[in-house]
Predict the structure.
Amino acid sequence: MVKMPPEVRETLAKQKPVPIATASKSGVPNVIFVGAFKILDDENIMIADNFFYKTAQNLMENPKIAILCYNGETKKSYQIKGSVTLCTEGENFEQMRKWVHGINEKLPAKTCVMVKVDEIYNAMWGPSAGKKIV
Ligand SMILES: Cc1cc2nc3c(=O)[nH]c(=O)nc-3n(C[C@H](O)[C@H](O)[C@H](O)COP(=O)(O)O)c2cc1C
């Protein structure tokens, strides 16, 4: 079980939007910006799918994600890799809809993307670049 260290949580929490990468089953990469995400705890991140298209297709056939964050003040950058569960009903889905519709009730809030953190890498330049953190 992988837990996000405090500096990773802080770096991710301060950045909006964040780039998220997915890939199709055959390995075609795709990257988008996401503003609607929440760090639920040390192991779980919730993302609101409002407008995902290729991303939604990719996650259905290959439920893996990479999230990139960077803070220019602290000079910290991380790649967070995770496994995804897609929810279109249930407690997490209802929580996502409430949150998204609290921002703007016209947003579609189609799917709740639950990310379980699997691995975290240092993505800052320098000697530790690319090293696995957890
Ligand atoms: C600044 C910014 C923030 C965005 N935030 C979200 C978001 O939180 N949720 C979402 O579904 N789409 C968001 N989008 C739209 C996606 O980046 C993207 O356009 C959409 O997923 C369609 O691309 P795809 O076919 O590669 O999935 C955002 C776009 C920008 C430019």
